[in-house]
Amino acid sequence: MKNTILFIFFVLLTSQAIAANLGHRSGGDVFTHLPENSIEVLSLALSGDNTYAPIQDSPEFEYLEFDVWETKDHELVVFHDLSLKRLLPYEGDNIAVYNEMKKNGAVTKPTWLLSIKHLTLEQIKKLSLLGDSRYKVPTLEEYLEEVRKHDLIKPIVLEIKYIKSEEAKEKMIELFSRFKEEYMEGRDVVYVDGFDLPKVSTQFMAFKMFFNLTFGLAPKAHKRWCGTLKENGFDSVSRCMFHRQNLCDK
Predict the structure, then answer these.
(1) N or C: more exposed end of the chain, with fewer CB within 10 A?
(2) Residue numbers in the chain where pLDDT is lower than 50
(3) What is the pTM assigned to this prediction?
């Protein structure tokens, strides 16, 4: 257990440093004045604004990548960290919200021990990214709807964090499959030189441990969910950092 916990924190702390892709966390590594994986940074990365040019035209923008977790009430949100401490801190506009949650018993732990899985979607929506009420954690549906508003020219990759319930797994696959069919299919997707993921426009990725946590350790469970993915048009789940490895090939 101790080694597992250390591995999780190592992955989450070092992934920013090793990421070369400008589309990592929806462009959050580039536009650091905005919260990563937010609707605002996504829009800026894809279309720019009066101050900043879009970055998806850059050859260093290999693919649009974002992370998905399951909430306590089985909803899906776009969020990177295991802990809420960095992105939903006890500061700014969040202080009053956390204090109210503590008062009514919804929160009994400090933010560094809280995860997305400990809160409902309604509770998460009351909190603000970086403690600034202008920025909220998007649901997977909200995120994909925002992508539809822009002319995405690069592949899109959903990184699976921990999706525990069958309900949430099914919803994640269904939403991403529908997005693929309705928006990505037929688009002229650009693959940069040296692109080391499968050359498909819409795909899943995961660290091996999160893949196992989500889909189970048993080969039967893997076979079932990988079969469901394939039925919905996803032939692989690429392994983070080892992109040529398909986690469904076991």
Answers:
(1) N
(2) 1-18
(3) 0.91
